[in-house]
Amino acid sequence: MNATLRLGATGFALIAICYGLARFAFGLFLPEVRADLGLTPSFAGAIAGGSFLGYCLAIVASAALVERYGPRPVAMGAGIVAASGMALIAVAQSSATLAVAVLFAGTSTGLASPPLAAAVALSVQRQRQNAVNTVINSGTSAGVALSGPVALYLGADWRLAYGAFAMAAALVTTAILWTVPKTRANASHVARGLPRFSADLVTLVTAAFLMGAASTAVWSFGGELVSRNLGWESRAIGALWIVIGASGIAGAMAGALCARFGVNAVQLASLLGLAVGIGLIGTSITTPVLVMTGGALFGAAYILLTGVYLVWGVSALPDRPASGLTVAFLAIAIGQTAGAPIFGSVLEAFGAGGAATLFAGIALSAGIARRRPLSVATS
Q1: pLDDT tens-digit series, residues 312-371
Q2: How many CB atoms lie within 10 A of CB 181?
Q3: 167 vs 149 pLDDT, higher one
Q4: pLDDT above 70: residue 219
Q5: What is the pLDDT of residues 5-41, one digit of tens each?
Q6: Are the C-beta atoms of residues 322 and 66 closer than 8 Å to each other?
Q7: Closest-CA residue to 141 (of 30, 304, 32, 10)
């Protein structure tokens, strides 16, 4: 296996652990966690928002650390934080401890993405970088898909599940030592501090923020929605997570699709899929078939959109790939930080159908933010 394949495989696995397990699996186990620890929907939303807030803080620090120390130590830090946070979730005995653990585990996602983008920039030929970046980014879907069978097998035993997730994180962290380069760019050629915000970056931030806010309908409350609407328990919800994760593998094509059809076309099509997916999962008149269809649309659309915004951010700051990715993913996470508690409150006030309809509309509104020029190349 050559260096590019090793880096791609390890990066894919780290993203699967940090995003799919440490961050998004919480929505899968939320009904059981709520029952065991007595959480209200509003408090559950606040916990989910706290996880996204931890991501926001971590991704800013990660980009700066990568530019100073190189990608390997920061990537290892992401794996260590993911393992520690999920281990703490597994043993949490109170809502306060759980909130701290979920926030801590969520910071691993912020730490993970910038060093991998920097590693790709250092190790992969320029014409292949967008493709490799979007393949690594699609690791989220693999982590989500993995959490589904765990829920099917373990049922309501969310503590054991998080213990297993923590062990997997430790194994991936070890692999980083042999695959992620330690080298950092020459200090005299690396820009420091905040990037200059062009009109292009402002448009990207707007689109990514709205998409991130809309996505919390499923990532934070998907299990709760189908539990309310269809009476599903953890095993059935696990099947939905498998569908979401498996369909998200389509996100590996984001780089190629952006090169062929342009950022705007791929973004608009994906936002439509995201909105329809949220609506099918959350509507009060849904059926099992509609939920699974919605899960497939949501999973593919979400990972495609994160790939679109990754390509957009890196191309907007080609001399600072870690910072370009950070701008895009930070905007998504800020949207999720705001969206999760708002969705929890709307769910309490207006029910599942009203909350899902509102957030599907938010997803569609992100399409107003369009990039100029209309396409981005992979070279």
Answers
A1: 988 888 777 777 888 898 899 889 888 988 998 999 899 999 999 999 999 999 999 988
A2: 17
A3: 167
A4: yes
A5: 899 999 999 999 998 898 878 877 887 888 888 888 7
A6: yes
A7: 304
Helices (H), the chain: 3-15, 25-37, 41-69, 71-91, 95-123, 126-137, 139-154, 158-179, 199-219, 222-230, 234-247, 254-261, 263-282, 288-316, 321-365
**What sign for the dihedral angle of Cα 49, 232, 275, 257?**
positive
* 3-state DSSP assignment of residue 83: helix
Q: How many residues does the chain have?
A: 379
Distance CA 26, CA 320 (A): 32
Tokens encoding 155? 């049922």
Q: Is 1's pLDDT higher than 80?
A: no
User: How deeply is 233 buried, as exposed, middle or buried, from its count of CB atoms within 10 A (0-12, 13-18, 19+)?
Assistant: middle
Quote the Cα angle for 377-268-16, to 5°. Answer: 75
Angle between helices 25-37 and 139-154 (to 10 degrees): 40
- C-alpha distance across the termini of the chain, in Å: 24
More confident residue, 255 or 375: 255
Mean local confidence (pLDDT), 102-124: 89
Angle at 199 between CA 194 and CA 202, to 5 degrees: 60
Neighbour count for residue 378 (Cβ, 10 Å): 18
DSSP state for residue 195 in the 8-state scheme: P
CA gap 78, 62 in Å, rounded: 9
Q: DSSP string spanning 282-310?
A: H-TT--HHHHHHHHHHHHHHHHHHHHHHH
What angle do helix axes 139-154 and 158-179 make, rounded to 10 degrees? 150
For 320-347, letters b (16+ CB in 10 Å) and e give bbbbbbbbbbbbbbbbbbbbbbbbbebb
Residue 197 phi/psi, 5-degree rounding, is -85, 105
pLDDT, mean of residues 264-272: 96
pLDDT of residue 196: 66
Reported confidence tier of residue 291, pLDDT bands at 50, 70, 90: very high
